[in-house]
Amino acid sequence: MSATKKQTAVQWLVEKLMKGDFVNNPDELIEQAKAMEKEQIVDAYTDGYSDSDNKLSFNKQYYIENYETIRKP
């Protein structure tokens, strides 16, 4: 498992909005989040397609390893 977790587009957007990083217009952040989501979907499909032995359990493991929030004690 990698030490660095990826952040989903939704997690990134929520974080930005909660910090108030949108000045007066959140539209730019929303568009950035949509672009990030598209890239994440393409990457996930590419990773899954290249794995001819791809099964549902591997998909769940991929999500956990790359996107699930690290729980802090």
Describe the structure.
This protein is mainly alpha-helical and 73 residues long. It is 63% helix and 0% strand. It is built from 3 helices and no strands. It has helices at residues 9-19, 27-50, 56-66. Helix 1 (9-19) runs antiparallel to helix 2. The radius of gyration is 15 Å and the shape is elongated. The mean pLDDT is 75.
Topology:
Layout: H1 9-19, H2 27-50, H3 56-66
Helix pairs in contact: 1-2
Brief rundown of the structure:
The chain is mainly α. It has helices at residues 9-19, 27-50, 56-66.
Mean pLDDT: 75
List segments where confidence is low: pLDDT < 50 over at least 5 consecutive residues.
none
Question: How many domains, as an integer?
Answer: 1
Largest sheet: none
Task: Provide key terms for this protein.
single chain; 73 residues; mainly alpha; 3 helices; 0% strand; elongated
